[in-house]
Amino acid sequence: MLTRKQHELLRFIQERLRESGVPPSFDEMKDALDLRSKSGIHRLIMALEERGFIRRLPNRARALEVIKMPDGLGAPTPRGRFNPAVVQGGLGTQSSLAKPRPATSPDEDDSRHSVAIPVMGRIAAGTPISAIQSRSHSVSLPADMLGSGEHFALEVRGDSMVEAGILDGDTVVIRRQDTANTGDIIVALIDDEEATLKRLRRRGSSIALEAANPAYETRVLGPDRVKIQGRLVNLMRRY
After folding, report:
1. What average pLDDT is seen over the chain?
2. pLDDT average, residue stretch 199-223
3. Which of 37, 96, 160, 227 is catalytic?
């Protein structure tokens, strides 16, 4: 048997994983459950882990996986390695971590229902780098792993998003758009000069670009200094 708070936390973690493939931070869990401190969240996580509902993955701070759900609370995310999920529109569907493969010819793409995604250089998950570069090459993804709209890819450099499961050397797939919801991971262009991959937060009239690594500070900027270039919808990793 789980307590009411344990049920609430398990459901919140599961819903966040389904929507974005990224487990919530301790602050997000604390706010969602209306608790005063992170220590309460820590105790709830330990209780869920002891009862076999979740597990903490090694070598990744705060990385959580839902192993099972109580009857009536829905199915868990697939067991195994923590994988960022595809997000289509407001609600995403869980998908395996995609492995990049060389772009195929148009005929092959049609037969395999694949889409060639242009890789537009590198993006900083750390200190912002120069703005998005020109197309360097392409990777191919199954069409059913992408929602509607135009997409591009960027190679990640830096470790500021490691707690969101985004590592140095990964390739992120971005849906091109100029708006996003708070909590989305976005490509932000700062002062038309610097591009960075961060989680979007809104603080009054200001925009906060939040890292997923406590070693990095959140940057709070005026809305006139930040242009949203797109939202993260998928992630690829070479093994």
Report:
1. 76
2. 91
3. 160
Three-point CA angle 159, 162, 164, nearest 5°: 140
Residues in Cβ contact with 198 at an 8 Å cutoff, skipping those fewer than 6 apart: 125, 160, 161, 185, 186, 188, 209, 210, 211, 219
Highest mean pLDDT among 52-61, 71-80, 168-177: 168-177
In 224-236, which positions are buried (b, 16+ CB within 10 angstroms) versus exposed (e)?
A: eebebbbbbbbbb
Between CA 173 and CA 99, with CA 175 as vertex, the angle to 5 degrees is 20
Note the pLDDT of residue 135.
67
In contact, 16 and 24? CB cutoff 8 Å: yes
Residue 12 has which token pair? 């919140």
Asked about 227 being catalytic, the answer comes back as no
> Using CA atoms, how far apart are residues 156 and 195, in angstroms rounded to an integer?
11
The single residue of 136, 148, 198, 227 carrying the catalytic annotation is: 198
Q: What share of the chain is helix, strand, coil (3-state, %, to 5)?
A: 20, 30, 45
198 is catalytic: yes
Are the beta carbons of 223 and 179 closer than 8 angstroms? no
Residues 6+ apart with CB under 8 A from 201: 182, 183, 207, 208, 209, 210, 218
Q: Give the pLDDT band (50/70/90) at residue 126.
A: low
